[in-house]
Every structure is written in C-alpha cells, then in structure tokens.
C-alpha cells in the first residue's frame, strides 16, 4: 500500500468530517494519535475541545448559540488503564464501559451503529491504542450504513500489531464534501507520522480546511513508560 502524506490528503479534501490518525512516531519511541473535528453548520462550528481527566470532551464555545447538543457534545478521548480510546461520538463511553467489563474493542461496539443523522448516516469511527511494558498495538473500527441504506449496518475492524516506526493509519467519516455526504470507503489510509508532537500538531492543523476546521487533539505516548504529552488546538479561542 502506498504511504500518503497526511498533510496532502487533508489539503486536498475540504471536508473529511471527523478524522482519527493512529500510528508510531518516526523515531519509534511514541504511540501517536490525533483526532480532529470539522463543521459546516454554525452549531457544529460552535465547539472547542477541553481537557477532562486524562481525556477530552467537546464543549459549546458560546452556550447561547448551541441549538442541538446531540451528536456534537461528547467525550472523544478516554483512558482505561493502558488503553487510550479515541472516537467520533459517545461510543467512546460504550467502548470504555465494555472494555471495563472485559469485552474486546470489537465486542464493545456491537451495541452501536452509524449515527441517526439522515440522509448522511455518518459513520461511527473509533480507535484504541494499547501501550504496555514497551509493547504497542492498536485497532480501528468503522460502523457505516450500506450505501446510505439505514436498514443495514456494515462493521469493519482493523488491527495493527507492532506497527512500524513512522507509519500511521487515517480514517475519517466522509470521502469528501457532498449532499448527502459520502461515507468513508476502504481500509484506513496509510500515512506517514513524522516529527515531534509540536511539528506534527502544526502540520495537521495547518493542513485542515481553514473554513471548516474546528478543533484538533494530538497525543504522543511514550511506549516504554506510558507517560504522554497532549496538544489541543481550537479555532474558537476566548
């Protein structure tokens, strides 16, 4: 599979929607994840990422302008022991609770489907990074309608054991802008993970469409120690 330049993929797609990147830094020392949100409506754009415990949640930038909190206010990132869970919706809590009861990542998502936002039926994309005793693996999932037919849910899980340094996978909700929005297709895209947390965060943030981008979360987890660094970028700044 061809390795893509993440920045180029983002620059060439005005509306990938929400996206998750997971991989390993090019020096092999860090498990890396990024999550971004975008918006076309005022309601979707009226958000910021804020820290909550070891994770983050979305919050209204201007509460007086919030119209409908469903599907846009949730905790995208939560930490359960050695697992970092990253998703594009409240299924973060579903995975957290399921894995806390010793279900697998895939089993935990069995109770969920795509979002009920006809006619888009936005896919639920999710990921989990497992870092323990110097070992690292991750999985990604997408739950999507069958070509816009809400009577059928397609479930795909992708597992990556001992990922190569500098390799990452990128999955996003939409192939591009449209009406209705076309759901992501195929295996998560192979992308390069380059630089430190500062340069990687800047690269992703600058590549996102300036009109549609809302917020970005990036975390680098030391594979040997489990300690992490986090960066949050919000377009809306008070």
Short recap of the structure:
This protein is mainly beta and 238 residues long. The chain is 15% helix and 41% strand.
Description:
This protein is mostly beta strands. The protein has a single domain (6-234), classed as Inosine monophosphate cyclohydrolase-like (Glutamine Phosphoribosylpyrophosphate, subunit 1, domain 1), CATH 3.60.20. The protein contains five helices and 13 strands. It has helices spanning 6-11, 42-45, 91-100, 105-108, 197-207; strands at residues 19-24, 30-38, 47-52, 55-60, 77-80, 83-87, 124-132, 135-146, 149-161, 167-172, 189-192, 213-222, 228-234. The strands form three sheets. A six-stranded antiparallel sheet has the order 11-10-1-2-12-13, covered by helices on one side. It has a five-stranded antiparallel sheet with strand order 5-6-7-8-9, covered by helices on one side. The chain has a two-stranded antiparallel ribbon with strand order 3-4. The longest helix is centred in the last third of the chain and has 11 residues, at 197-207. The protein is globular and about 45 Å long.
What's the layout of helices and strands?
Blueprint: H1 6-11, E1 19-24, E2 30-38, H2 42-45, E3 47-52, E4 55-60, E5 77-80, E6 83-87, H3 91-100, H4 105-108, E7 124-132, E8 135-146, E9 149-161, E10 167-172, E11 189-192, H5 197-207, E12 213-222, E13 228-234
Antiparallel strand pairs: 1-2, 1-10, 2-12, 3-4, 5-6, 6-7, 7-8, 8-9, 10-11, 12-13
Distance between the termini: 43 Å
| CATH evolutionary superfamily | Inosine monophosphate cyclohydrolase-like
CATH class: Alpha Beta
Main-sheet strand order equals 11-10-1-2-12-13
Question: Gyration radius, to the nearest Å?
Answer: 16 Å
Average per-residue pLDDT, rounded, comes to 97
Tell me what the CATH architecture is: 4-Layer Sandwich
Q: Which range best describes the helical content: under 10%, 10-25%, 25-40%, 40-55%, 55-70% or over 70%?
A: 10-25%
Main sheet attributes: strand count, strand direction, barrel closure: 6 strands, antiparallel
Query: Which series of helices and strands comes N to C?
Result: HEEHEEEEHHEEEEEHEE
DSSP E strands, number = 13
Domain count = 1
What structural category do the secondary elements indicate? mainly beta
User: What is the approximate shape?
Assistant: globular
CATH topology: Glutamine Phosphoribosylpyrophosphate, subunit 1, domain 1
